[in-house]
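Weekly structure sync, notes
Attendees: PL (lead), two postdocs, one rotation student
Agenda item 3: pending single-chain targets
PL asked that the sequence for the first pending target be pasted directly into the notes so everyone works from the same version. It is reproduced below exactly as submitted, 248 residues in total.
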Amino acid sequence: MEAKEVLEQVKNGTLSVEEAEKYFRKQPFEEMGYAKLDSHREIRSGFPEVVYCSGKPDEYLQSIYQKLYAFNGEVFGTRADRRQYELVRNVLPEITYDEISHILKIEKKEKEHVGKIVVCSAGTADIPVAEEAAQTAEYFGAFVERIFDVGVSGLHRLLSRLDSIQEANCVVAVAGMEGALASVIGGLVSRPVIAVPTSIGYGASMNGLSALLTMINSCANGIAVVNIDNGYGAGYIATQINKLAVSQ
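Predicted structure, written out during the meeting:
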């Protein structure tokens, strides 16, 4: 049944508004052969579809960006490289690229940023993943404060910003090496902490596995852990938490 038929049935009284609403909350998508773009994801989940750029063939990436921009008036992608930026810029001149987070996006100019999320990184080398989290949350409408290079090897640096951290609706803790930052923050705040292990570290860090295991085994309460280097996932979850806090 097409959308027009649904609306006609509502008009004629043969279909209730509630039943029509269920129809429009199903999963319409744009069939592209190589991709099925979820054009109604924002209706269902509150956030539009995002592009994972790495590994996508050039022609596919260009077309996906064009379609999503047409759907939403903005588009956001992660794990892009500069070559992909130049490629997409050929069809969408407004596109911007951040060399640190590897985010490729067009964002609506006037966007309200509400609540407060604090994104902390243990070290400077963790900033690319932390920036992915921060820019994801900002794209989805959250106010984000960045507090970088506050790892446990100099705990006084973290404590100097504790007041601001404790004011946040959610804290994202990004750390490689042994990944202890999340446990420390978890013991100091009354809000949820999203822990992000990074692949930064020497041999026995096992490309982030050591930090991941530390975070999963934390004795601090209120910590949730995402996958290694998954700044996007942390930013998304933090935004959902922040949204709930703002709506109270």
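Discussion points:
- The chain has a mean pLDDT of 90.
- The longest helix spans residues 231-247.
Action: rotation student to compare against the earlier draft before next sync.
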